[in-house]
């Protein structure tokens, strides 16, 4: 996580004329940018996904999650409501990987499950912005999303006894975030940090109700964060 935040800061500093936007009386760029009823753009970014587990019985042995950094890419469609509010649709593609460590096993083959996921996401968000200060403007954003996990293995007949960890294909949740719009000479650059929280249980249980992998899990939900860099 520290490395991702460091990269976030370096990219912000590397943005063309980024520091110049925070001067007391800068030359105003893209003065009509926020007057458009419809606006378009794209984003690139990084993510780190985790799982939140809930258990049927508290036996003191939790599933361990080894997280890694993935990437995001997508498009933006924005509709202006007024000076401070916009509705945004941000469909995108996301890749992430997690390793799960299950307790109670002596063999690594049984204890470790690698979960690679490719999500197609469809977030519908409300963006609330502050008043523009020179060439920058802070904002917060939040909304709901639905996504399809292309690596879910939901239709597989095999389960963990055969080395197959299965998840549900469709996921629903919400996301919250904050960021800054920076108005450069040629485009609007918007770094932001987002928190993502699934509302639905994503786990498909093993065929055996007493499975040592899934028998004690009451719910498994994705949570994570994004660092996105938007260009409009």
TrEMBL record:
<feature type="domain" description="Outer membrane protein beta-barrel">
    <location>
        <begin position="31"/>
        <end position="202"/>
    </location>
</feature>
<dbReference type="InterPro" id="IPR025665">
    <property type="entry name" value="Beta-barrel_OMP_2"/>
</dbReference>
<dbReference type="Pfam" id="PF13568">
    <property type="entry name" value="OMP_b-brl_2"/>
</dbReference>
<protein>
    <submittedName>
        <fullName>Probable protein-translocating porin PorT</fullName>
    </submittedName>
</protein>
<keyword id="KW-0732">Signal</keyword>
<feature type="signal peptide">
    <location>
        <begin position="1"/>
        <end position="20"/>
    </location>
</feature>
């Amino acid at each position: 996580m520290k490395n991702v935040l460091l990269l976030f800061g370096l990219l912000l500093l590397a943005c063309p004329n980024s520091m110049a936007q925070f001067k007391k009386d800068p030359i105003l760029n893209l003065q009509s940018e926020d007057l458009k009823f419809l606006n378009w753009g794209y984003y690139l970014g990084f993510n780190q996904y985790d799982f939140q587990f809930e258990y049927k019985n508290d036996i003191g042995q939790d599933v361990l999650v080894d997280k890694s950094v993935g990437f995001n890419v997508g498009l933006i469609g924005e509709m202006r409501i007024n000076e401070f509010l916009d509705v945004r649709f941000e469909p995108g593609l996301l890749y992430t990987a997690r390793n799960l460590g299950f307790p109670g096993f002596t063999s690594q083959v049984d204890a470790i499950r690698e979960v690679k996921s490719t999500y197609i996401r469809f977030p519908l968000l409300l963006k609330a912005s502050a008043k523009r200060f020179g060439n920058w403007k802070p904002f917060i954003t939040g909304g709901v999303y639905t996504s399809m996990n292309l690596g879910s293995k939901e239709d597989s007949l095999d389960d963990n006894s055969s080395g197959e960890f299965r998840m549900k294909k469709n996921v629903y949740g919400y996301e919250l975030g904050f960021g800054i719009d920076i108005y450069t000479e040629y485009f609007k650059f918007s770094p932001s940090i987002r928190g993502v929280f699934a509302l639905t249980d994503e786990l498909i249980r093993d065929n055996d109700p007493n499975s040592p992998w899934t028998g004690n899990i009451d719910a498994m939900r994705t949570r994570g964060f994004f660092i996105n860099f938007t260009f409009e």
